[in-house]
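Subject: sequence -> structure tokens, single chain

Hey, anyone have a minute? Need the predicted structure for the following. Not urgent.
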Amino acid sequence: MSQTPTSVPTGANLSSWEGTDAFACGCACRFFRLTEEWGLKMFDSESMRDGTLELQTLAAEHGLGPPVGPSVTIPGYLDYAWGYFTRVAEVMPRPNFNKDSGKCVYPKGYDALERRFQSIDRKRLKRMCKKIGFTAGDMHEYNLGFFEGEPVIVDFDSDRNWKCEE
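Reply:
Had a minute. Here:
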């Protein structure tokens, strides 16, 4: 395993990664794959980053999410200045829309991957999350993944997931 990053690699131009396999955009954050093992999640507010980092850290401690690294602040990066490093999980690829044909283009092996992701026991994951103190609110196949062969949650948006009060 490579060393945990402590800063964004020198010369990394995060805005140029859009449209590549190294970039994914969700409702709450942008994800940048930095290496085979490490990625960077960037948020539009410090509180969203901190809440999401807290939930993913808790989940990772119990094998329910990928491990995390330190948080970072990158002033001047559009509206997404607050982030943290995370280990990369295998995630379900989204099909690409071909504008010319008007059809979705699915990656090779998509059907087998889809069956694998649909086989994840979401109820079990939700029960395990509740047991450690948070509610997992948005568990469709694009918010789940596999880390070291085990199913994990990869979307910890703190607006939809929250810590249970004791």
